[in-house]
Amino acid sequence: MGFSLVVVLVSCYRLYHKKSKNFSFAVISDVQYSDKPCKQVLGMERRYSEALVKLYQVIRWVGEQRSLTCLVHLGDLIDGNETEQQTMKEYSQVCAAFSESKVPVFHVVGNHCLDVSRDTLKELFPSTGCFYYRWEPNDEWCFLFLDCLEISCKSALNEQYQQQVQHYLSTQQPRATRWNGALSSTQLDWLEHELQHCRQKVIVFGHIPLYQEASDAAHLVWNAEQVLDILHRYRVVAYFAGHYHRGGYAVDAHGLHHITIPAICDAPADQNAWAKIRCESNRIIVQGYGTVPSRTWTLSLCKTRHK
Prior knowledge:
Layout: H1 3-17, E1 23-28, E2 39-41, E3 44-46, H2 51-64, E4 68-73, H3 84-98, E5 105-107, H4 118-121, E6 133-138, E7 141-145, E8 151-152, H5 159-169, E9 181-182, H6 185-196, E10 201-205, H7 224-231, E11 236-241, E12 248-251, E13 257-260, E14 273-279, E15 283-290, E16 295-298
Parallel strand pairs: 1-4, 4-5, 7-10, 10-11, 11-13
Antiparallel strand pairs: 1-14, 2-3, 6-7, 8-9, 12-13, 14-15, 15-16
Pfam family, one: Metallophos
InterPro entries: Calcineurin-like_PHP, Metallo-depent_PP-like
Domain Calcineurin-like phosphoesterase: 24-246
């Protein structure tokens, strides 16, 4: 979906949703579409070619709802294919599906998204050349979207970043894999600045998990501790991620909820994977569909960080 259309949709939805402090949005992750055979990856069947049909199913469901503020996709639009031409074709097919959404669509960068250039991806993002941003669904809530692959094997944008990639890969930690990435110091400063000046409750979104208990040791942001140190000091109530295709959920010692959404491309042939998230003044309700579990939790003021 071109971002000009997103702006129009956002303006329309704000007129309604700012009147009501409770709101709902849909979330999916790891469409990872590709026209190639299924493959066993980490003990799961990756059903690449079925993912586009399942994405259209979600888009149709979104269109049937009357109360959704937006749709969030947590990264990995495509898997990438043998040729650049085929990869671009598959990317265009996925973008065409998202363009049919009746609500605004917000993306984060996934590692497989970078099988196309950032110049190509920027059409999906609100700020040219910047892949982290904020959006406010109403006066009580704020969404922050992170670029967890800003420093990564697929997008080392300058020599300094390339040196940092080599540093992270040399640490011998389980997370030191080529499919993970890190936030730059510039992005960390931006995150801190946004949270310092935010008086709403905050939900943060990124492709890669930050907390091992909601993922595993091999699917974490390289500098997750730096990111969490910032999030724990402010009014952040949840962090949504994808990347770890099994999905997961955990609450850390600071009361921050970590939700990892199962991948669409790994859903069994007769299932899908998406969720409707309802945000209320004192609780969050996750209504899962397909392989996504449902859960509800109460927002505890003593664990909501104030600044």
